[in-house]
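Why should sequence recovery work at all? Because a backbone constrains its sequence more than one might expect. Tight turns favour small or flexible residues, buried strands favour hydrophobic ones, and helices have their own preferences. The token representation captures these environments compactly. In the example below, the structure is given first.
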């Protein structure tokens, strides 16, 4: 498929697909006239790249782990690197969950305020941390 078709199937811009190719994340075959052509598997590969970017991985890290993803080729160093990335994602998930829970508490308090007309009360759940709290 051509680059425009791949962009349409994945929702990724043509510019981003060219960038992926420049970074070594995506491989295109070239026609005699120089047009890029991708195999059907490119759709799944682009979706994986997008997921890994969304998880906070850099293009350099994604390039390093692609042999493991594509061919199952792994080294102890690569497995260690993947474990570090997984742990980083787990930490971000925990932080996001705590933020969501705190926001839920604020919404609950504000809703109660609207319904009762009483002033909002500061509670531990609605407390917004300061730099001193993190020390």
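From this structural description, the recovered sequence reads:
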């Amino acid at each position: 498929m051509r680059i425009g078709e791949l962009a349409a199937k994945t929702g990724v811009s043509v510019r981003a697909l060219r960038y992926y190719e420049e970074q070594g994340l995506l491989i295109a075959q070239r026609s005699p006239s120089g047009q890029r052509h991708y195999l059907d598997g490119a759709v799944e590969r682009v979706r994986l790249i997008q997921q890994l970017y969304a998880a906070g991985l850099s293009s350099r890290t994604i390039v390093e782990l692609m042999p493991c993803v594509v061919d199952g080729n792994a080294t102890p160093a690569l497995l260690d690197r993947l474990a570090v990335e997984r742990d980083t994602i787990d930490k971000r998930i925990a932080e996001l969950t705590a933020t969501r829970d705190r926001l839920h508490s604020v919404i609950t308090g504000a809703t109660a305020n609207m319904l009762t007309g009483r002033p909002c009360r500061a509670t531990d759940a609605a407390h917004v941390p300061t730099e001193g709290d993190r020390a």
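A few observations help interpret the result. The radius of gyration is 23 Å.
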